[in-house]
Amino acid sequence: MPMGRLLITGASGYLGQRVAYFAQQTTIWNKIYSQSWRNPALAGEHVACDLANQAQLQALLDRIQPNAIIHTAAVTPAMGAAMTNEALWAVNVQATATLAAWAAQHEARFVHVSSDAVWGGRDTAYTESDVPAPIHPYGASKAAGEALVEALNPAAAIARTSLLYGQNPLDPNTTMALAMVRGERDGALFTDEMRCPVFVEDVAQALLELAQQPRLYGIFHLVGPQILSRFELGQALLAWNGIDSTGLPAGNTSASGLRRPSRVVVDNRATQSQLSTILRSIDDVTRR
């Protein structure tokens, strides 16, 4: 039986596009609303809304009355100079709080997408119960968003992700590695910055599964089971796309002088035991 109206925020973003696409492939939802601040071609009915405008966001929620919300929208480092402290606060914190509170008040399912950037790195893996300890503004904004969701909507699901990759369209990590190996972009991929990259389609499917399962609440780790450095990830993604990675520049965080999370290994075993969606390793995905 169809479950009602689904709102996907950030539907023009890399993850949001795939969530909207897969939502459209099912008969689970009576209506799918794809939110973005502009009007691109999106799956579902597009609803324009500036999430930094809290009055506009509240009006949108009251108008469409969603039964479930998957909140993928965020201000991220990929936005460059547009990632100001004001933008981080308005979207990653205030808009998240507005969505979480509205969903709680209207008994709507709320699934919030967070990030492994809530941590600064350590030798041992992070589990769902580890307390966030961010070391930069983006991570701090995501940690604040998580805390507000937990306080305002205890029945919500908070899904932490890591580096996303995919082919349709190419993900930002592949695009960056490709530009570097072609000499079109300066910089290097770090060999000492470890992550658990995850296939964007697996994350999209897992988010839709969480949206359909109100019994699942709290923290979930939607990450891959394989640990790779950013450099190793770049090599793997180029190989997957049939591109020679010779000449891909390598570096390390200590030499860069940048303050960045180093080894952020996220354990997904507890999450995987509760989901039917398989969060695959990059080796499994690229061999298919």
From TrEMBL:
One of its GO terms (molecular function) is methionine adenosyltransferase regulator activity. Belongs to the dTDP-4-dehydrorhamnose reductase family. GO terms for biological process: dTDP-rhamnose biosynthetic process; S-adenosylmethionine biosynthetic process. It comes from Herpetosiphon geysericola. Its EC number is 1.1.1.133. SUPFAM superfamilies: NAD(P)-binding Rossmann-fold domains (SSF51735). The keyword Lipid biosynthesis does not apply. Catalyzes the reduction of dTDP-6-deoxy-L-lyxo-4-hexulose to yield dTDP-L-rhamnose. Residues 5-280 form the RmlD-like substrate binding domain. This is dTDP-4-dehydrorhamnose reductase. Gene3D superfamilies: NAD(P)-binding Rossmann-like Domain (3.40.50.720). Pathway: Carbohydrate biosynthesis; dTDP-L-rhamnose biosynthesis. One of its GO terms (cellular component) is methionine adenosyltransferase complex. Keywords: NADP, Oxidoreductase.
